[in-house]
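User: Before I run my own analysis I want an independent prediction to cross-check against. Here's the chain; please return only the structure tokens and, at the end, one sentence I can use as a sanity check.
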Amino acid sequence: MMISPGMLKQKMQNRGIDKRQIRKFEEEAIAWLDKVHDSEEEVKKLVDALRKTTIIPRNVPIHGLMIHPDTGEVSLLTDG
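Assistant: Structure tokens:
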């Protein structure tokens, strides 16, 4: 099941996350994506940052996955 950015935002709002925090998260995600060079390391850093943020409840598992662009193979880098 694909989740669009709009659906993700709605789910975050439904969990009571303030729209300003969601916007800040969007800005930070865009800034992060502009700097991606070592994909695997960046995924691990992002998972670590997401686990430390206050807008995602601690009981929400966060996984780090990589999808090979040619084969579609999925690799689990960090297990939430």
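Sanity check: The first helix runs from residue 5 to 14.
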